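>> Question from a student workshop board

For tomorrow's exercise we were told to take the sequence and the ligand below, predict the bound structure, and bring the output to class. My setup keeps failing. Could a helper post the expected result so I can at least see what it should look like? The ligand is guanosine-5'-diphosphate.
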Amino acid sequence: MRFFIIGFGQAGGKILDLFLCREKEAGSTIKIKPLAVNTARTDLMGLKYVPKECRLLIGQSDPRVKGHGVGTDNRLGAKVAQEEIDTILNAIDKMGTHDIDAFLIVAGLGGGTGSGGAPVLAKHLSEMYPEPVYAVGILPAPEEGKLYSLNAARSMISLLKYVDNLILVDNGAWKFEGMSLRESFTKINEEIVKRLALLARAGEPVESGMIGEMVIDSSEVINTLRGGGISSIGYATTLVEDKKSKGFSLFRRKKEDEEFVENDKATKIASLVRRAALGRLTIPCNIRSAERALVLVAGPPEHLDRKGLEKAKLWLEEQIAGVEVRAGDYPTKRTKHVAALVVLANVTDIPRVKQLQRLAVEAKEEIETVEKERIEKTLEIFDEDLEPLV
Ligand code: GDP
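>> Workshop helper replied:
Here is what the output should look like for this input. Compare the format with yours to find the bug.
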């Protein structure tokens, strides 16, 4: 799955940067096109792995922005993105889109630049390109306050109009014990990147000399994520034992041993997938409300297993509302872990989203009341007999 990843705003840029960092460390051959877009110069300067020519500063000509960001004003973020949409689209076009499978916009939805800019970009990309447009939207934690919730709700509603799928991540659900939200960001970003890295491997050529048990195509990812809606992602890993150290010699192994090992492998894969689906999801949701699902398992080839994947697929088919479950694997020698990714597509029962919608309505009403009171108070200063102009 060859993604054109656009990190919009600070959180989006940082996640993109970390993605590139981890891919580099892993000696990855996966093809990714990166672009970081921001209204704050310092945020762009803080990136280490996004090449300089793949960073774009917007809003310089706006006197309220001038390279310093838009604060938490996502309407200003959207305005700046709209005014400079040609610059952004030209940058994307210049980097080339002929060999990509999909666009992926990553943004924090509670702030200003990414929250406002991501929907504007999604709209234009979906109008201009045949490739699907996905977004990874990071929801603010409740402790960040109502303004962030209002921003996130507004951005989410706009994004859902234009993206083929919105993958949500809930900062509130992911805050780590004993850590502040800011301290948690680094760990949350690692979790997001692990999931995206596995998704990016779907349908990609495997390392030389490796053959997948059940190969999944990028078109199957696209089919899972089609038609709009929200997705949540589950993930689980297990460290695999080194066969040599366990004394499993291929030459000495008896037939019963082999069968036992095979069944054991299948059970392990199936339970790993179950763990991924039932463990911490990027956004907590009712798995039974998912319309489709995608399972991807990656790890050393001797630990992958077709039977296990099929078992997992059948189990997942029983769990979700729909019947479409796709499953595949990706053999790699570059790790001692087996990882399972479960994408729950088009989930509808998401408590945090409902809560955000409620909070946003409250916040909007509060803002309107405050504004009304302020206007009334201001008017009181003037003589009541004064005739208004219009
Ligand atoms: P922008 O630069 O104006 O787009 O604003 P940010 O990207 O900083 O978005 C602010 C929102 O994103 C807040 O709700 C933060 O909780 C969240 N956020 C900021 N940085 C990070 C990060 O590195 N990781 C995660 N997971 N969330 C972040």
